[in-house]
Amino acid sequence: MKELSKALLEGKIRDLLLENVMAASWHDALRQGLVYVHALTPEFRSLLFVPEFRHLPAKDEASYMLGLVHATTLASMQAVELSMPHFVTDIGLPCLQLYGANRLPAVFRQLFALWSLSPKSPISLNIGDELDLNSLIIMETVLDVLDEGATFLLPQIIVRVRKGVNLERDSGGFMVLHKALDMARSRAGMAFALMDSPRNSAFMGLLAFSKHGLRLEPARLDFYQGTRGQAIGGQVSLNLAKVLIHGMSGLQEAIAIAARLLATNLELTAREGMLDKLRGIPLIINLSGLHCYPMSHELFEMLGLIGEQVAGLRREFDLNFMLAATGEELPLATGEEMGVGKHKISALVASMEHYLPAGHCLRLHSGPHMSVDDLYGQLSEASEKGISFLRFMPDDVRCARCHLAVAARGECPQCGSDSRRQVVDRGEGLVSVSIDGCNS
Length: 440
Prior knowledge:
Radius of gyration: 22 Å
Oligomer: single chain
Strand content: 15-25%
Number of helices: 12
Shape: globular
Strand order of the largest sheet: 9-2-3-4-5-6-14-13
């Protein structure tokens, strides 16, 4: 205990865990970029939490807003990211009743600004499959406020897409989906959960999604409670590009290390006497870079072997380890650029998701040069193929001569040039690069 307290004070908790959890031959795995541990902080927060907002006091406008911000701040102390699958019913409707439709944009603008202050956690709003008039007003207002650009990165938006609700052009919720797709042409924080997929269809609107595609199922099929109050305990990502240099044995050893790290992190997170109650909480082993490997028999065989190993680890530790392949960028030297990768819209992707019960994110190209109909066509095809979650990755490709937003190849319709430049985020701000990779 003294050693733990000293490590907490000195900010060396990573070193302590590396020293006490990893086998001798893997002490440098994290430093070498083979493994990345999410949410490993002195606070030992969970990775994802679904807060409960239904019982906030609402005596007047000011007390409700203060209570909402205070409750969100408290929830931020419990997890690295907050997911709000019931935003429309739990927050939007009370705000609409208190402030009215005319004031709602200003209220959401203020709320999102307050959520951006420290201490904070990234927030994912799950919206899309409510059809009553008030819900449509709330969802359209949220998208309009975010599209203004003042709160460009926070919160993230996950739009739930369902046949008969908002997928068809003549459906009641299509205008909200159309607006979200338009924003996805240039805004990075847009994702879409396809609720008719085999992975999602059994849970109606009860699932909670993180911004990168992690999915949290309700502990019970309880339409009143949903996923409120639930959490994902932790996540360890494996750098497949580096781990697989050591072959399947190296991958299996890395998965075992990930399980030990997650188990230890959960034990340290749990309050005294609470560990048994947390044994069912999801602990995520994320396969980072899986999208860089083409669909093949060998890939499915590898996933099958990994799945069997994880099932064995669940029995050994009596903990709920789950596999995922999310769409997030990690501070890993992967050797591959994080981007769209080699997985395209196909039924094989939906089949692969069978091995990834904690979530999978398919990344697809978008950009200002693409139309809303282009994105809608891809979304519809993905829904038909049974894919469960996708995220559009905006490419800001410009003509190098006149700077018009254009496709990556072909003549510019304005000036005829075939030279291109692309605006990309290198982590230290936006830079412009030519298609052949020369920085501007």
